[in-house]
């Protein structure tokens, strides 16, 4: 990395820290997001300890929750497990109940990755999108994008989880096909 690129990144990081400080001073809750936690379209595989450092920094700066995003959808159950084991065990890590997973379904593993987070690591916050709307332009052409809320709800119900508030899968499906 070139010196000016490093200085530019440090400047952006400093600005973000200032925004977090202002939000804290004005009692504005901020949810932190860490993107490309498993793979990056430019740099390839991402080290879990690098993600843990960013998550720890966001938590220490006052974010009330940290969402870990498999932004390009390359995660597998094994890579999700490796990530969560490092992030949740990192000194200064945010508590498990403040960690969310945000899985894209590009590789077809979003539901499996969510199950690993829920069952094996007791993460209980899952980001999703009605009908899987949205996505990442860097994941490739025609990539499926965000995991569909209706698929997550169906999986949770089938696994015996209780949902609050009560969500009926058929209501979500009717929204999808309107």
What would you say this structure looks like, in words?
InterPro entries: Aldolase_TIM, HMGL, PYR_CT. Pathway: Metabolic intermediate metabolism; (S)-3-hydroxy-3-methylglutaryl-CoA degradation; acetoacetate from (S)-3-hydroxy-3-methylglutaryl-CoA: step 1/1. The protein has 178 residues and is an alpha/beta fold. The protein has a single domain, classed as Alpha-Beta Barrel (TIM Barrel). Helix content is 44%, strand content 12%. The protein has helices spanning 3-25, 48-60, 77-89, 110-121, 149-158, 169-176; strands spanning 31-34, 39-40, 44-45, 65-70, 99-103, 125-127. Strands 1-4-5-6 form a four-stranded parallel beta sheet, covered by helices on one side. A two-stranded antiparallel sheet has the order 2-3. α2 (48-60) crosses α3. The longest helix has 23 residues, at 3-25. It is globular. The mean pLDDT is 85.
Summarize it:
The chain is of the alpha/beta class. It has helices spanning 3-25, 48-60, 77-89, 110-121, 149-158, 169-176, and strands at residues 31-34, 39-40, 44-45, 65-70, 99-103, 125-127.
Largest sheet: 4 strands, parallel
How are helices and strands ordered from N to C?
HEEEHEHEHEHH
Which stretches of 5+ consecutive residues score pLDDT under 50?
none
Q: For the record, what CATH class applies?
A: Alpha Beta
Protein name: hydroxymethylglutaryl-CoA lyase
Domain Pyruvate carboxyltransferase: 1-173
GO molecular function: hydroxymethylglutaryl-CoA lyase activity; metal ion binding
Keywords: Lyase, Metal-binding
């Amino acid at each position: 990395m070139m010196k000016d690129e490093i200085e530019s990144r440090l400047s952006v990081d400093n600005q973000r820290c200032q925004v977090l400080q202002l939000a804290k001073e004005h009692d504005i809750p901020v949810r932190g997001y860490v993107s490309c936690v498993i793979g990056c379209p430019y740099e390839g595989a991402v080290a879990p300890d690098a993600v843990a450092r960013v998550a720890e920094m966001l938590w220490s700066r006052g974010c009330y929750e940290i969402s870990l995003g498999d932004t390009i959808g390359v995660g597998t159950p094994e890579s999700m497990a490796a990530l969560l084991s490092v992030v949740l065990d990192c000194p200064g890590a945010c508590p498990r109940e403040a960690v969310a997973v945000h899985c894209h379904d590009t590789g077809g593993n979003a539901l499996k990755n969510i199950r690993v987070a829920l069952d094996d690591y007791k993460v209980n916050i899952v980001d999703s999108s009605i009908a899987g709307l949205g996505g990442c332009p860097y994941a490739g052409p025609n990539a499926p994008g965000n995991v569909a809320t209706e698929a997550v709800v169906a999986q949770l119900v089938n696994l015996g989880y209780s949902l609050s508030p009560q969500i009926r899968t058929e209501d979500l499906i009717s929204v999808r096909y309107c």
